[in-house]
Amino acid sequence: MGTQAAISLNHLTKSYGKSRGILDISFEVFPGEVFGFLGPNGAGKTTAIRTLMGLIKASSGSAQILGVDALTSSPSIRARIGYLPGALSLYENYTAAQLLHFFSKMREKNCDQLIVEYAKRLDLDLHRKISELSKGNRQKIGVIQAFMHHPDVLFLDEPTSGLDPFAQREFEAMLEEVKARGAAVMLSSHVLSEVEHLASRVAIINEGKLLVVDQISALKDKALRTIDLFFDEPISVALFTSIPGIKDVIARGNLITCTVIGAETILLKVAVENNVISVQTHEPSLEEIFLHLVEKKVA
């Protein structure tokens, strides 16, 4: 992963007056990184992406893409960006091939080979009119146009919406390929298991404000998790209730269940001293972490 940020937001704000936009958003995305961008509906994800793409004007703050001012950048930088919007709108009377070739000409790049390759991989009929295609097949066109010109930066807003499991698997392979060649990817999705699988870091926003930016692994380390301790005989919960970072200690026969935040060192030391037989840790998913952070902020 490169050390110079490919995407950089610095106190970026978009105000719609009384309506919510984004407020003081700052983070970076690096080359060779898939970066998850998460939030509930209406949190400001799409506003942030559209502002970075120059589709709407920022109220304040700044942003850079590939070292260039993203808010006033030239078409030459846009040609190095792949963008798949969440609300995909396509020319109904074109065939898939006609539309993709049209996009190629706009970018002044010959994408013929990759159009054919990606269409084959995603099982898309290039010769049917878009008006005849299902939502899933239209989404495949959106995916292809975002990837086909070998962009250095990709903004993907709900990219697997409508895709069948086979196309989703191929999309993930395509994403790994662009990551391997050093592209920076900003991935917004409501499928949190997908983000957990594909991304290493995430930003979570709610009501236009940034809640956290961190490694998924670090978020899991900081999050509440449940541990089951199995003993050869019933044991008193009093041994565990005073341990820092331990709460909700429950005894069920020979089983002690507790909730842990932070290091487990003292807990496991006490368990070993009392002849623990086995230990099971239930790690939180990204979805559980997301819900906890958003609900905590709302509360």
Give structural notes.
- Keywords: ATP-binding, Nucleotide-binding, Transport.
- It is a single chain.
- With about 300 residues, the protein is of the alpha/beta class.
- It is about 35% helix and about 30% strand.
- The protein has helices spanning about 45-50, 75-80, 95-105, 110-120, 135-145, 165-180, 190-200, 215-220, 240, 265-275, 285-299, and strands spanning about 5-15, 20-30, 35-40, 60-65, 70, 80-85, 155, 185-190, 200-205, 210-215, 225-230, 245-250, 255-260, 275-280.
- The strands form three sheets. It has a six-stranded mixed β-sheet, with helices on both faces.
- α4 (about 110-120) runs antiparallel to α5 (about 135-145).
- The radius of gyration is 23 Å and the shape is elongated.
List the helices and strands and how they pair.
Elements: E1 7-16, E2 19-29, E3 34-38, H1 45-52, E4 60-65, E5 68-69, H2 75-78, E6 81-84, H3 96-107, H4 112-122, H5 135-147, E7 153-157, H6 165-180, E8 184-188, H7 192-198, E9 201-206, E10 209-215, H8 216-222, E11 225-231, H9 238-241, E12 246-252, E13 255-260, H10 265-273, E14 276-282, H11 286-298
Parallel strand pairs: 3-8, 3-9, 6-7, 7-8
Antiparallel strand pairs: 1-2, 1-4, 4-5, 9-10, 11-13, 11-14, 12-13
